[in-house]
Amino acid sequence: MKRFLTVFIIGCLASGLLFAQNKVDQPSRKIFAYGGQLQKEFIQQVIILTGKTRPRVCFLPTASADSPKSLLMWSTLCQGLSLEPSVLSIWVNSSPEQQTFEEQLMGMDAIIVGGGSTLNMIALWKAQGIDTILQKAYRRGVVMAGGSAGSLCWFQGGYSDSRPQKLSIVAGLTFLPFSHCPHFHSEPTRKPLYVKALLSGKLGAGYACDDKAGILFLDEKYNRSMSLDINNHTYFLSVKNGSISEEMLNSTIIK
After folding, report:
1. CATH number at residue 141
2. Tell me, what's the pLDDT at 18?
């Protein structure tokens, strides 16, 4: 009986140590979402978040249909920064020497998603299996980032200009369990629509960003806000007692 108890206790201790070790080894999951267009300072923050001196950072311009303008902007902004930049284009012609999308993305330290049509981007990602690859990379600790469509995509959903005539609600990848509103004050129709959707229950509580402000999430929880100036902010909006509660979050100026 004593021998059994000794073996049992040792086994429990070993299991506990193994569990603790696995918990320590598990990388932090990081998402840096900002309200508007990509900025050099935002790329620098992504570099810092990787913890590496020269990280491999991949830009996904899917939302702009891999437009030359987006590619030129990415190339220009990366000049002078300590990173190994690359681009994932999904408009490809098959050839044996190509890497798969998974091989390209899983080899990155960070992934930055550009702006454009959120609805079309996510539809194309799902058709190509990129949504699943992104989730796998995120769970492995690859830093995720982006603005406009590139921020909305990580959340449960929010308003997008991806359909004709008017803004409409588009579902995101749900890496973050909140709704989201980019361009919060830069586009006059954004905030009223977002508030109305929260009050009606079409969207749940969530975070909003002005164009030059962003939020860092660690393991799906709010960590801190950053801004390029004192005029751009981030916010948390929810419904309390039938009314909107809007909290401006304290931001660190990074410019």
Report:
1. 3.40.50.880
2. 45
